Amino acid sequence: MNRGQAHTLEGIVAGMILLASILFALQSTVITPLSASTSNQHIENQHEALARGLLTVTGEDGTMKDALLYWGQEPDATENRFHCASSKTKHYTGNPDHNLCSLTQSELNTRDHLPPNAFGKQLEETYGKGIATNVRLRYLDGSNHETQFLVFQGEPSDNAVSETSTVVLYDSDRLRTSDGGEGAKLKNAEDVFYAPDNWPGERIYNVITVEVTVWRI
Amino acid sequence: MRIAKETRTESRGGRGQTTFDFQVGATIFLVSTIFVLSFSPALLEPFDDASKGDTVATDRIVSKLATDEFGNPSKPYVLDRGTTEDFFDGGGVSDIEEHLRPGQNINIALTGFISGSEASLCWDDDDRQFVHVGDAACDIEFEVGSDPADQNGVVSSRRVVQIGGQRATLRVRMW
């Protein structure tokens, strides 16, 4: 009779049974946070611990403070930015380049780079390729928290980790020039620096919270 | 008069099955079979990694060394050179090794950047500075354990530390 259509039907039903069994097997396997993938928990733990160590160590030997004070001292306030950063963003946007300050401004505006000082070097040595970092500085302006980025490499992914540390700037601290030398005192440089003097009569200039966010790309 | 020519919409000797129907059914079946057979090995992949336990062990070991044993818990990640030298020189790693399973190996190293290249550090007592392992002036090496160069499944954990003013990375590897 119509046995032929039965063969076709059998073929389709057999295929569906096979697919259903695959589905069943899939439901029973478990992907754990430690499975090999881009969001491995162990790697995230390591990044977090490395950020913690980085902040502690650079806070201890003063390289973090040097990086915070590595800001331009031009009289025209709109011209000021972190030394040798892009003039559009005023902060650094990525890959390390140690000959940075010898480039022209238009070249700087088109390149991504990390801070050309010891802090940027330590960031590069700790994390290397394939890992993006953001370094965000939050300071007080009156009672408001304002943000200035030191390094910005994009919006963090869902698997980013971050660590924070606090640095106190005093009126007697000096800005750094682009070759690392000492510049004007902070109390005289309030109109060029990104953070204002939040306590005008006191020795403290401002308190900066440094937040390092790290993720894999 | 009977029309001699029959319109043949059926093939295969009139079994009621067209070629096209058969093709569709057989194709669907074959495609799904091939898909299932090629996908099955990937189902077992998350369970393949036999060294999962080591990730926790390396993390705990490097954390304890960097924040407690080599320095002071109140100043984590700042290492004391004397205590660190005693550990690397005096076989302190045997305390760790006696807790490993048979067949497990460990390598603990303090690496740093000197003159642009990174390698294990070594203390030069005469000039009182850090050099790389392999340098002629090297006195106390900051590395213990065998080299896992050709192994698969090596798990490592790292911490950024400071030792005697030199920034370094403490790295523990197990396999």
Which helices and strands appear, and what pairs or packs with what?
The complex is a heterodimer of chains A (217) and B (175).
Chain A: H1 3-28, H2 41-60, H3 63-68, H4 105-108, H5 118-127, E1 131-141, E2 144-151, E3 161-170, E4 174-176, E5 182-185, E6 204-216
Antiparallel strand pairs in A: 1-2, 1-6, 3-6, 4-5
Helix pairs in contact in A: 2-5
Chain B: H1 19-43, H2 52-69, E1 71-72, E2 75-79, H3 81-89, H4 93-97, E3 106-114, E4 117-124, E5 129-132, E6 140-141, E7 143-144, E8 155-163, E9 166-174
Parallel strand pairs in B: 2-8
Antiparallel strand pairs in B: 1-2, 3-4, 3-7, 3-9, 4-5, 4-6, 8-9
Model description:
The complex is a heterodimer of chains A (217) and B (175). Chain A is α+β, with helices and mostly antiparallel strands and 217 residues long. Helix content of chain A is 30%, strand content 23%. Chain A is built from five helices and six strands, in the order H-H-H-H-H-E-E-E-E-E-E. In chain A, strand 1 (131-141) and strand 2 form a beta hairpin. In chain A, helix 2 (41-60) runs antiparallel to helix 5. The termini of chain A are far apart. Chain B is of the alpha+beta class and 175 residues long. Helix content of chain B is 33%, strand content 29%. In chain B, strand 8 and strand 9 form a beta hairpin. Chain B has four helices and nine strands. The A-B interface holds A 1-5, 7-12, 14-16, 18-19, 21-22, 25-26, 29-32, 34-36, 42, 45-46, 49-50, 52-54, 56-57, 60-61, 122, 125-126 and B 12, 15-18, 21-22, 24-26, 28-29, 31-33, 35-36, 39-40, 43-47, 49, 52, 55, 59, 63, 66, 76-78, 113, 118, 155, 157-162, 165, 167, 169.
Number of strands of chain B: 9
- End-to-end CA span of chain B: 90 Å
Largest sheet features of chain A: 4 strands, antiparallel
Q: What is the CA-atom radius of gyration of chain B, in angstroms?
A: 32 Å
How many helices of chain B? The count is 4
Q: How are helices and strands ordered from N to C of chain B? A: HHEEHHEEEEEEE
Tally the beta strands of chain A: 6
Distance between the termini of chain A: 62 Å
Going across the major beta sheet of chain A, what is the strand order? Answer: 2-1-6-3
Q: Give the helix tally of chain A.
A: 5
State the share of residues found in helices of chain B, binned by percent. 25-40%
Mean pLDDT of chain A: 81
Strand content range of chain B: 25-35%
Low-confidence stretches of chain A: none
